[in-house]
Amino acid sequence: MPVVLVTAAAEGFRPNMITIAWTGIVNSEPPMVYVSIRPSRYTYEMVRQSGEYVINVPSAEQARITDRCGLVSGRDVDKFKETGLTPVPASQVKAPLIKEFPINLECRVVEVVKLPTHDMFIGEVLAVHINENVLNENGRLDVDKVKPYAFCFREYRTVREQIGGYGFSKGDGLE
Ligand SMILES: Cc1cc2nc3c(=O)[nH]c(=O)nc-3n(C[C@H](O)[C@H](O)[C@H](O)COP(=O)(O)O)c2cc1C
């Protein structure tokens, strides 16, 4: 599972961010993603009311700060103040982007799936921001520069070693 920091903004709430591991891509065209949020979270009501959120993908160096945002609630603390992370206005939604994070996806909720413990907010990706310093010389995203990491059996693990590439089993006789 990836770990992301989801930002939200809604009237009557302080701009906030929540650490989320229940997330992923669910559709290609239009691009759609989901985040599953427990109704008890401060961010839950913000996303429900605004119908918007931003997924900010951290680098491994940002694991500590991202963990911290998953231990405290926006109800009690201003996480932007506490972490020193910089909110930047997004282009399509009111939720801010986190400047320091290499990838930001602006999303609008298109469907909410109520599950026993979490609500799954399926969002259409309206805009994608990629920090220039994680691109290679061909302008493509460089995984070694992004340094994404995963939440694996309650441990944070980097995604370091390449063990193959898309379609690399072609010709193995299993088609
Ligand atoms: C690694 C990690 C992953 C988490 N994943 C989720 C998640 O997918 N959904 C969720 O509702 N809470 C998740 N949490 C818990 C929330 O981040 C945590 O309760 C947070 O303090 C809620 O903040 P808020 O009250 O400001 O919204 C996770 C926490 C950590 C540390």
Description:
With 175 residues, the chain is mainly β. The protein has a single domain (4-158), classed as Electron Transport, Fmn-binding Protein, Chain A (Pnp Oxidase, Chain A). Helices cover 14% and strands 36% of the residues. The chain has a seven-stranded antiparallel sheet with strand order 2-1-5-8-9-4-3. Strands 6-7 form a two-stranded antiparallel ribbon. Strands 10-11 form a two-stranded antiparallel sheet. Bound molecules: flavin mononucleotide (FMN). Flavin mononucleotide binds next to β2, β4 and α1.
Computed structural class = mainly beta
Q: Which small-molecule species are bound to the chains here? A: flavin mononucleotide
Assembly annotation? single chain
Shape category = globular
CATH class: Mainly Beta
SS field, number of helical segments? 4
Give the termini separation.
28 Å
Helix content: 10-25%
How many β-strand runs?
11
Main sheet characteristics: 7 strands, antiparallel
CATH architectural grouping: Roll
In which order are the strands of the major sheet placed? 2-1-5-8-9-4-3
CATH topology: Pnp Oxidase, Chain A
| CATH homolog superfamily | Electron Transport, Fmn-binding Protein, Chain A
Gyration radius, in Å: 17 Å
Instruction: Spell the H/E element sequence.
Output: EEEEHEHHEEEEHEE
Kindly give the count of domains: 1
Beta percentage is 35-45%
Which features would summarize this protein structure in a list?
175 residues; Pnp Oxidase, Chain A; seven-stranded antiparallel β-sheet; two-stranded antiparallel ribbon; 11 strands; 36% strand; globular; binds flavin mononucleotide
